[in-house]
Amino acid sequence: MHVMPGASEQxxxxxxxxxxxxxxxxxxxxxxxxxxxxxxxQQHTMAPSPAAMTALIALTQADTVLAWDPADRALIAxxxxxxxxxxECLAPANSPPT
Length: 98
Fold this sequence. Notes:
By secondary structure, the protein is mainly beta. It contains one helix and five strands; from the N terminus they run E-E-E-H-E-E.
């Protein structure tokens, strides 16, 4: 991966993001569980709050480049507005190959 501001050397691009929702009792938000698979096929799991999950889904629907930094347990969303230079060689995960 190219140099990414604020990221560790372990940071890798996200190639798969899966989400499960586990229902709770009536009137309960339940809980989310997500699995991130990075470009080096490493799997990472976490359980974001329903509010965080809403934001996460919005980021996955935008034309962003997502990267996971396991050292800081940080999901990095680049190109929310504009394009970062280090992403120029990376197409968004949902784009067809060029």
